[in-house]
Amino acid sequence: MSRLACLAAAALVACALPAAATTISTGKPAASQPPARMYATRAQLRECLAEADALKQRFADISAASAAHDQLFDKVEKEGAALDQREAALDHDNELALQAFNADVKAHNEHVRQLNDQARQSQPVAGTYNADMADYNRRCTPLVYHVEDMDAVMKERAKAAAAASAASR
User: Fold this and answer.
1) What is the pLDDT of residues 103-162, one digit of tens each?
2) Whole-prediction pTM value?
3) Is the dihedral of CA 106, 111, 114, 116 positive or negative?
């Protein structure tokens, strides 16, 4: 066999072998690359910080209303206990004592109505706050930002607060 024929035969065998060897299956597709990290813009940071401030103020207002409600609840509870004691000692034959007691019961019932009205009015306010807080957490909590951007936004906020404070004097 000539040298050229040997080379051709060797090339043919070399080309045929890798074709059969490349059919190996790993069973798993190649893993996809994670998405590129997205950083929050300064505008997003400003918006989220302003919203956080508003939510903090709303929470303070809700807490103050809740404290007032708790005070009224305590007052109503004490009134009820006092009325129970008075009723146990009430002279049912004394018309004047009955009228006074009934007037006090009427006032107590009005306090109970006010307490219930406050509770009813606070439910939608608290529900709206909770929904807004959940929305804020969904949008703002996962933000990733550059420290330089947050520093710049915080400096802007400090400057604006100082200007507002100076203007209010």
Assistant:
1) 999 999 999 999 999 999 999 999 999 999 999 999 999 999 999 999 999 999 999 999
2) 0.68
3) negative
- Burial profile 138-163: b = 16 or more Cβ within 10 angstroms, e = fewer: eebeeeeeeeebeeebeeeeeeeeee
Give the N- to C-terminal CA distance of the chain in Å, as an integer: 107
The residue to which tokens 């103020």 are assigned? 57
- What DSSP state is assigned to residue 40? P
**Alpha helices, H only, the chain:** 3-21, 42-89, 95-140, 147-167
Other CB atoms within a 10 A radius of the CB of residue 45 amount to: 22
Our measurement of the distance from residue 133's CA atom to the centroid of its chain's CA atoms, rounded to an integer in Å, reads: 3
